[in-house]
Design brief:
With 208 residues, the chain is of the alpha+beta class. Helices cover 25% and strands 24% of the residues. It has five helices and ten strands. It has helices at residues 30-33, 50-58, 72-81, 90-102, 183-199; strands spanning 2-4, 10-18, 106-110, 118-122, 128-130, 137-139, 144-148, 151-154, 171-179, 203-206. The strands form three sheets. Strands 1-4-7-8 form a four-stranded mixed β-sheet, with no helix packed on it. A four-stranded antiparallel β-sheet has the order 3-9-2-10. Strand 5 and strand 6 form a beta hairpin. Helix 3 (72-81) packs across helix 4 (90-102) and helix 4 runs antiparallel to helix 5 (183-199). It starts with a strand and ends with a strand.
């Protein structure tokens, strides 16, 4: 159900998960929200050198992963250190916790909003999408993105507002943007993601 274009550095993990109810009725458990703190314990550590490796992956093409376009784990670490990383909803919190502690970008999108077919590929020049409720746009030209039939909708930088999770979300697609040369770390992160989904009693399938 998802095509992945060849990329010299990408080792993606893709899962589909379904919760027992809409997430607006499933608050995140305390053990999960406590891990939104950068100093909290987690089974996966954040290797310092991974930061530059993720940036190199995103530079494949002409995209510049700096400033407001920096990879999402860098934003999460800064927000956590400054006390600005708060609970959003259960699937979003899962993605943020995993990304914060692993250093790998994680996209979590509403499966019932995504329009098939799905594809991971470099976005074409001139493409863009709105990434927050205030209408701010991310220029996705030359950025590695998840695409649905309507265009780019998720990336290692920011996800599209169009396909983000919300109170009525029940099924999600999770993309862990893993990096070549770090396969062991990527596998550990996938295992941790599955463990979390087991703990919140979500049904899931590993697609990739």
């Amino acid at each position: 159900m998802i095509a992945i274009d060849l990329h010299p550095m990408l080792v993606p993990v893709v899962l589909m998960a379904e919760f027992s109810d809409v997430v607006g009725k499933m608050p995140s458990p305390g053990w999960l929200t406590r891990m939104l703190n950068s100093g909290s314990d987690a089974p996966v550590c954040l290797p310092e050198e991974l930061k530059s490796v993720v940036r190199v992956m995103l530079r494949h093409g002409c995209f510049k992963p700096t400033g407001r376009n920096k990879p999402s784990p860098e934003y999460l670490v800064q927000a956590a250190v400054e006390g600005r990383l708060f609970s959003v909803n259960l699937p979003a919190d899962i993605g943020n916790v995993i990304s914060l502690h692993s250093g790998l970008p994680v996209s979590v999108l509403d499966m019932d909003i995504l329009q098939l077919p799905l594809r991971i590929a470099i976005a074409p020049e001139g493409s863009k999408y709105i990434f927050n409720p205030s209408g701010q746009e991310l220029d996705t030209g030359d950025l590695l993105c998840l695409h649905d039939a309507a265009g780019p909708c998720g990336s290692p930088v920011k996800d599209s507002q169009r396909t983000k999770t919300h109170a009525g979300t029940r099924r999600v697609l999770v993309v862990i943007w893993g990096v070549k040369g770090w396969e062991k770390h990527v596998e550990q992160v996938k295992t941790w993601c599955c463990d979390i989904l087991d703990k919140v009693r979500a049904e899931y399938k590993v697609l990739r």
